[in-house]
Amino acid sequence: MTDVARLAGVSHQTVSRVLNDHPNVKEQTRLRVRAAIAELGYRPNRAARALVTGRSQLIGVVARNSMLYGPASMLTEFEQAAADAGFAVSVGSVRELDRDSISAVVDRHLDQRVAGLVVIAQVASATEALAEIPADVPVVFIDGDPAAGRPLVTVDQVAGARAAVRHLLEAGHETVWHVSGPTEWFDSAGRIHGWRQTLQEAGREVPPLLSADWSAAEGYRAGQMLARMPEVTAVFAANDHLAMGVLRALHERGRRVPHDVSVIGFDDVPEAAYFIPPLTTVRQSFGDVARAALTLLLGQMKEAPVPADTVIVPAQLVVRESVAPPA
């Protein structure tokens, strides 16, 4: 700001007034300051200005418009963590995490002079758009690209999948079939990797991957195929809704769970304990993710030296009655 004031031939306070659209600035002076800003490529530190002026206790969140249990729970937990820290949350929902949609939401948040941004970015297509977030804006990604080099918080999807597959192998099953989520999702990719890696390390056959979306309907479709294959004795579903569809298909085909086929899900939705039979699943701690993301964001907002941290939150296997040794 000092360089802008020197080039424009005005005071530091005048530059501040122009940046804040103060009415008591002559138009000629305003134009001169704007020209100096453009020539120097100056970008005001929005977070620092908000903290100094006290005008923003607002955090912007960019999230996909979704009723899926994981993303919806993550958003709820972050809103609560922010409220506990004295911040309000402005949520910008997009139908798809593509460049144009994300850019529009980010610009809207910046116009609100948010103190920082949290981006819940589960898919690879968001990477290009996220790279355009200005460097002076504090930002933390949840479930984003681990290779992006920006502060990131995520659940250990690989370890969660490994725990599920290992549990089935230890029960005596020769191999485990996997009904995955969309392969472009980072969460789904991590679970696929953990499933395949565990089978390979155990020297077991890796069955063909059954790729789906996150819905019970797609789980049912995959389950209809699996139910017709007598060699299938263990299924790991990438979320509990997929597992619900698999359970329905197995039941219709007369394949008993867990006597004929064992099934494990992922997420531990509130209904999982009431499935028939109660579902063994992998629990994600969305609250821990939210609090870790807020901690990273607050560190940046205070202009503390924050490296491009990656915080990995553990996942927990919850054992219930849907797993048993093979018949």
SSE order and pairing:
Layout: H1 2-8, H2 12-19, H3 27-40, H4 46-53, E1 58-64, H5 69-84, E2 88-94, H6 99-111, E3 116-120, H7 127-130, E4 139-142, E5 152-155, H8 157-170, E6 177-180, H9 186-201, E7 210-211, H10 216-227, E8 234-237, H11 240-252, E9 262-264, E10 281-284, H12 286-301, E11 310-313, E12 315-318
Parallel strand pairs: 1-2, 1-3, 3-4, 4-5, 5-11, 6-7, 6-8, 8-9
Antiparallel strand pairs: 10-12
Helix pairs in contact: 1-3, 5-12, 8-9, 10-11
Organism: Actinoplanes awajinensis subsp. mycoplanecinus
InterPro entries: HTH_LacI, LacI/GalR-like_sensor, Lambda_DNA-bd_dom_sf, Peripla_BP_I, Rhodanese-like_dom
GO molecular function: DNA-binding transcription factor activity; transcription cis-regulatory region binding
How is this structure best described in words?
By secondary structure, the protein is α/β, with parallel strands linked by helices. It has 3 domains: 2-42, lambda repressor-like DNA-binding domains (434 Repressor (Amino-terminal Domain)); 51-154 and 286-312, Rossmann fold, CATH 3.40.50.2300; 157-284, Rossmann fold. It is 43% helix and 16% strand. A 6-stranded parallel beta sheet has the order 2-1-3-4-5-11, with helices on both faces. Strands 7-6-8-9 form a 4-stranded parallel beta sheet. A two-stranded antiparallel sheet has the order 10-12. It is built from 12 helices and 12 strands. The model has no long low-confidence stretch (mean pLDDT 88). The radius of gyration is 25 Å and the shape is elongated.
